[in-house]
Amino acid sequence: MNVNEDCSNFDSLPDLSIELNGKEFIMKPSEYILKTKDDSEMGEYDEEYDENSPEFLAKWNGKYQCAPAFMAIDVPAPRGPIFIIGDTFMRKYYTVFDRTKNAIGFALAVTNNTKVNSADIENPYEEQYNDEIIDEILSLSKGQ
Predict the structure, then answer these.
(1) What span, in angstroms and rounded, lies between the C-alpha atoms of 130 and 123?
(2) Of 48, 80, 112, which closes a domain?
(3) Do 39 and 104 belong to one domain?
(4) For residues 109 and 94, is the Cβ–Cβ distance under 8 A?
(5) Other Cβ atoms within 10 Å of 80 Cβ, number
(6) Using CA atoms, how far apart are residues 39 and 47, in angstroms rounded to an integer?
């Protein structure tokens, strides 16, 4: 990934297409790039400040730092290259791990800014989840 650390090419980065089991999942640069406020030239400041606090913003130089949110693992071909897509991917796509079928399912995650029609969610299985599996997934997600 060709991401400039100073974010100078952030606006020209392409959407990223991740194909899993023949299905395409699209991520925008704002979803796969970590863009943080650059505090490297700020000198001494209280680490307790939130980066949106008036104290931080008064000293901030207005610059950003960018880095890919995915982690590459050095695995040679034919199995590699391999990337850990992790929480970056799971922020956008709700992920269900079904150990009974040894499968993983994905759906667009619902956030405060997302409106989802249930008819638009693809079911990765031919049959629907039964109520027991849904209850188990919900109880695991609540730590019960």
Answers:
(1) 13
(2) 80
(3) no
(4) yes
(5) 11
(6) 11
Q: What single-letter DSSP state applies at residue 71?
A: E
* Residue-wise pLDDT tens digits, 8-25: 999 999 999 988 888 899
Taking phi over 0 as left and psi of -120 to 50 as alpha, with beta for the rest, 86 belongs to left
**Domain containing residue 122:** 85-144
Query: First vs last Cα of the chain: how many Å apart?
Result: 40
Other beta carbons within 10 Å of 48 = 8
What is the domain-level CATH number for residue 75?
2.40.70
Span 102-139, pLDDT tens digits: 888 888 887 766 555 544 444 444 344 445 555 555 55
Q: Which two tokens stand for residue 96?
A: 């269900």
Number of domain units in the chain = 2
Same structural domain for residues 74 and 7?
A: yes
- Looking at the structure, do residues 17 and 75 belong to the same domain, yes or no? yes
Q: Which helix (H) or strand (E) holds 86?
A: helix 86-92
Structure tokens of 100?
């009974």
Phi then psi for 5, rounded to 5 degrees?
-60, -30
User: Which pairing describes strands 103-108 and 93-98: parallel, antiparallel, or unpaired?
Assistant: antiparallel
- Report which residue type is found at 144: Q
CA distance 2 to 9: 9
